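Quick start: what a row looks like.
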Amino acid sequence: MAGKTSNQSAKVAKQAIAKRVAAKPILLAGGNPQIAKADGDAPVQAYIAAMPGWKRDVGRRLDALIARTVPGVRKAVKWNSPLYGVEGQGWFLGIHCFTTYVKVAFFRGTSLRPVPSGESRNKDTRYLDIHEGDQLDEAQLAAWVKQASQLPGERM
């Protein structure tokens, strides 16, 4: 009987997450989508779908590149930002929309080679800012993603 109750609880929890994800997101300051905190691919895809204009294509490209580079990557949305991680190792990367760019945060960015150029107040974090019309160096980005996924991640 306990197994049946557990299965029902899991089903109800999944339905609640799906309902939150299905709601039309509000865009916060800078055009950042407000997505309910949840684990998995569905909330990340909801975030990407809600990214305004040219940023949506950047989000799709980033998500696909990360998934190709790190098979089995763990995904979640927390603090209105998609996070990518490795099970048991924490989060290695986050994405966030701003008014004129998409920010990619490498949480252990100072350990990457070459080090991404965007500095942070956090001594370990480095950023890559992607503006409309920028040509993404996908080979470099994939190299950073691979390196970042092999480092201890952030616990959030």
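That is the whole record. The chain has a mean pLDDT of 89. The chain has four helices and eight strands.
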